[in-house]
From TrEMBL:
Pfam families: LacI, Peripla_BP_3. Gene3D superfamilies: 3.40.50.2300, lambda repressor-like DNA-binding domains. SMART domains: HTH_LACI. This is LacI family DNA-binding transcriptional regulator. GO terms for molecular function: DNA-binding transcription factor activity; transcription cis-regulatory region binding. It comes from the Bacteria. The keyword Signal does not apply. Transmembrane segments: none annotated. It comes from Phycicoccus endophyticus.
């Protein structure tokens, strides 16, 4: 059994209340020599305050909950890593739950984090906006790195997926591609919908027709990318792919079919993870500002923890185009297929 606050008090020759004043710097003045004796006793006994007991007394637990849909999509894994680094630097313990993009699982995690009295909650997506609204209404600071219903009363940090998708299509058109298809995510995903809207805007701004038959949807997975691409190959000379993980499936299919990228098929994907960087060929991407998203989200969350009455904020960050080997001007790539 670990040392208690009473043990520290006995060794330092003070009352438990004085130990508390030292631990919670600023609550009551403590003489420098007394403070030194208490800190020395804490070090000798390796005393650690009980975070659960602190929570029951209404104090901070210095822990933050993080909900992610899955780790198979490298975008979520990369974003989680950025959040974890920042939380560690802020002296916070990060408790992570994987929802599998399921409403029931998300609801159970939300309730578990509330029961464990985490200081705040970060979410990379939300399938249970009603439950999330209740969590926020109960006073739990919440920031999502995704779009949620405006009525939920939580702060959001997102990248501008619509403008990013449009920039991807503009780049393909600048390269000389004209029959540009779109591999989209599931229809219930707002992010997937915004990326399709950006694809459409990019084509229409260039005077090209955005044909619905050139949109093929699939899950955000390698298998989803492969199956969606099968419906489009032969009808397109380029693809805007809504995620790097889907693009990995598309690239595997081009290798299996002997389709030369970028000569026969140009590809731009969305996210900007290592999966795209180390693909063969390396993929041109719309890179989401993951570090900046994590920084803004942590700053917003810390602000809400310090002042729970703050009005929810909604930050939109711009992605950037990174040109690599999966696109190039058609004049250099040979005649159009």
């Amino acid at each position: 059994m670990g040392a208690t606050r009473a043990d520290v008090a006995r060794l330092a020759g003070v009352s438990p209340a004085v130990v508390s004043y030292v631990l919670h710097d600023g609550t009551r003045p403590v003489a420098p020599k007394t403070r030194e004796r208490v800190l020395d006793a804490i070090a000798k006994l390796d005393y650690r305050p009980d975070p659960v007991a602190q929570a029951l007394r209404g104090q901070r637990t210095h822990s933050v909950g993080l909900l992610v849909p899955d780790h198979d999509n490298p975008f979520y894994a990369d974003l989680q890593r950025e959040v974890e680094h920042l939380a560690f630097d802020d002296g916070l313990v990060l408790l992570v739950g994987t929802t599998g993009a399921g409403r029931d699982r998300e609801t159970k995690y939300l309730r578990a984090f509330v029961d464990r009295r985490v200081d705040g909650l970060l979410m990379m997506s939300s399938q249970a906006p009603d439950e999330l609204s209740l969590v926020a209404a109960a006073g739990m600071p919440v920031v999502t790195l995704d779009r949620v219903q405006a009525a939920s009363g939580v702060s959001t940090v997102i990248s501008n997926e619509r403008s990013g998708a449009r920039r991807a299509v503009e780049h393909l058109i600048e390269c000389g591609y004209r029959r540009i298809g779109c591999i989209a995510g599931p229809g219930e995903s707002q992010g997937a919908t915004d990326r399709v809207a950006g694809w459409k805007e990019g084509l229409e701004a260039a005077g090209l027709v955005a044909q619905e038959r050139l949109v093929s949807r699939g899950p955000f997975s390698r298998e989803g990318g492969t199956s969606a691409a099968l419906a489009l190959l032969g009808d397109v000379d380029a693809l805007f792919v809504s995620s790097d993980v889907q693009a990995a499936g598309v690239v595997a299919l081009t290798h299996a079919r002997g389709i030369a990228v970028p000569d026969e098929l140009g590809i731009v994907s969305f996210d900007g993870t290592d999966l795209a960087r180390y693909s063969t060929p390396a993929l041109t991407v719309v890179e989401q500002p993951m570090r900046a998203m994590a920084e803004v989200a942590m700053r917003r969350l810390n602000g809400l923890i310090a002042d729970p009455g703050r009005t929810p904020t909604h930050d939109v960050l711009e992605p950037r185009l990174v040109v690599r080997e999966s696109t190039r001007p058609r004049a250099a790539a040979g005649p159009e297929a």
